[in-house]
User: What shape does this take?
Amino acid sequence: MGVNGPLTIQVLDGYLHCRYLGFLRIAGQRGEISEYATSLGIRRTSVRTVAVERILRQFGDQAVANPISLTPDALRRGALFLLDADLRRGDISIRFDGLQRVPGSSVLGDFHYVPVLFGADRHLHRTDRALLGLLGLLLSDVQGTAPRYGLVYHGSDCRLSRVRFSADLSGAKSLMGELSRLQRGEVQPRLVLNDHCPTCEFSTKCHEQALREDNLSLLRGLGQKAITAYARKGILTLTQLAHTFRPRRSGKRSVGPSKKRYFALQALALRDRRVYVLGTPAVPTGEVRIYLDLEGTPDDGFVYLVGMIVCEGATQTAFSFWADRKDQEGSIFEEFLAVVARYHSPRVYAYGGYERAFLKRMRRNSGRKKLVDRIVDSLVNILGVIYSHFYFPTYTNGLKEIGSVLGCTWSEEHASGIQSILWRRHWETTQDEIWKAKLLTYNKEDCAALRTVVEFLLMPGNLPSTAQGPTVVPVNELDELAYPPKWGVTNFANPDFAAINSRAYFDYQQHRVFIRTSKTLRKHLRKPGLHHNLTLRVNKHIEVTATRCPDCKSNNVRTLSQLESAGMRVRTKRSLDLLITSTGMHRHVTECRPAAYRCEDCGHRFKPDRYHRIATHGHALMSWAMHAHIAHRFSYGTIEDLFREFFGLSVNDSEIHMFKSLVARRYRKTYGGLLAKLASGSVLHADETEVHLRTGKGYVWVFASIEEVAYVYKRSREAEFIKGLLRDFHGVLVSDFYAAYDAIVCPQQKCLIHLMRDLNQALLASPYDNELHSLTQPFGTLLREIVTTVDEYGLKHYRLTRHQRGVTEFFTQIRARNVRSEAAQAVRNRLLKYQDKLFTFIQYDGVPWNNNNAENAIKQFAYYRENRPGVMKESGLEDYLVLLSIFQTCRCKGLSFLQFLLSGEQDIDTFAVGTRRRRPQAALPLYPKGFTPPHFAKTKTGKQRPAT
Assistant: This one.
């Protein structure tokens, strides 16, 4: 096929909508113009007529309405407005809609021209802006100056919009280069169907060709980038794509239903002619079900027809509310509300988001906002349910295609949303009732199809297959075929099998079956009860005394005898602790008995206040438990078993959870000191990761230096709090390429390991892209030389400054390069965007070129997160992060986390200097003032739990 045609305005417009369309037009092919395209042409002509009248009134004799040849001489005449200027130059033959004169120097004089377009639609599209940019580029070649903007007259009201251009028109230059190569026959784009196809003149031809090729673009929603990525893997057809589907097991941290669309599963549904169901869909229903469908003209933002089918039990009623003009939109909306108000708690179904957007728009001016809010709350978007869970054997998720699979039909053969827009325009032009009848019938059939789809999704029994409908297969059946279960729960088809299997586990039989017949098991499997700690041998007895009355503060108190204090229920308490030495550790039990007193001044009888605050567990015991939990990531259950096995103590997991809160409260000041020290340091590493809590998703941020680490929990990934934290920070911030860090005002070093991984991924994805290789190779060479110097001399500025010249030359070369491939352009733009933040470490002492400190700290938290998905609370996580910050800081400084906790010291640097003595064991552990310790009760199973 010879490709020798000139570049015309039709070629440019077609190429912007679809590269293959531009290729066909430049090759001279012509198709059958669609009725919709003809309608757009008529509307564009109408806009042009109105705009020209306005222009002639505005500019008068200074407007040239006759076609002229676009040359510098013609432009030097200086007309204020030119209509129909023809640019004919070699392989270019383009007629400009118009040119408007504006101030600004050029080869023409102290003025130049900007391009003008006439558009049919009310809203400007991406293609309109790109076409205006191409016209601006062509105009710059004639007048010697690139225009800064272009003008568009568009819409039924002929509004005027200004479109700004980039400084160098780089996007337009890239497009013009592609068109030039296409015109010379150097490239031939592949057929890729897109959203423009329904109105294209080659729609039927391209669709038939795509069916013959089994083209991937037949699946709507599969974009150009995804198709290119599949092509690199050798996947070129839908049949090949179908063979790649493998059921994915849900991850540990997966929360809620997946919103991802698996195109390989869609291709599998097409190949097998089945409906696949992913996950467990939940479709709300009700006694009264309303199936709602709207018809409107998107260009005017006007809904002219509200149709619905109301089903109450076996009764079905259809309603249609028609508006002749836009000012009647509110009236048909009130009619719709009047019908809905008749029913109590109806469930409303719609297909897509158009209906919800309409309800929210009309709510602003409606006097029945509560009713509208109830309708919006009860609205179910069936398309969203299908997108997440259902894969029909169709190329799109449109109502027409899915309804056709389920047996729905439409009176008009080519009924569609675009066709309905044309019917409405025909009715507005002719007022012929035939077009109105077509629209009413079309709307009722859409409502009926929606009802059929909803009833199919609501079928009980996991959507069983029927003789009339398609075969329905849950994806979990494919999962069992693809991945036979080796561990975990087996899904039994027979409920009796499931009940039998649940009684065959080892632990179940040990504790429920064998223990009934074996005396040995009864003896050894019996867990210590609540009062086990009361039977332990006491190591020390202490009497708790007082010196003054807690009521009147008098010192005139006397000790009561046993007989006098009999009514005060004086009981002893036991404090459990560990004695830890350099050679081992053992339990230590202290029994505390309070003395009873009577105040001689006020007569008040009391026990010492300190007695009520005596903690059940000592500081060393809690420190050892938190060391095991934080440093070794032992679970509470494991620590409970270790206490029972090693020390003979009964400490349950609820008490261990309380230890975390108490120890974290003690070291809050230490944690605050770490944050302050990091914010005042010379180098700061930062990173973040997400975490799933009971209340939803949050983010854990880590800030680290060479010796300190601190974790911070926030509910969102917004980095506003960092600005407050680092408001006085004057050092170098080392981070990844998350855009939020760019707002921090300080010298920054981006992690070059992150960049290197991304460049490597780009090379693997495009192994034959020579331009990409020419960009990444000098970067690797330069970085390797610098890293070699770092390995030999360390992070010393006076050693690294020798590489500054190489860095400058590298970016100079990158800036001068003009690359054409998409991957090379992305790499070049990224390197130039961050050129001031990639080699900052050369200019400072002690600044690393990667973010390993923060990443290592994030990894320590990730180990803990892996085993606790969706079970943590915010308060518990914040306590854990306080202790993890102290542990990581001790680890970076080469200190013992356990010894620091045992020392009682609250400043890590002071402890590091030499204060390593532990807190005296004789001192009684006390709960903080205001802290109420939980009381524990015994359950029927023998386990301890907090009493309610």
About this structure: Confidence is low (pLDDT under 50) at residues 461-467, 916-922, 935-948. The longest helix spans residues 35-59. Residues 485-524 form one domain.
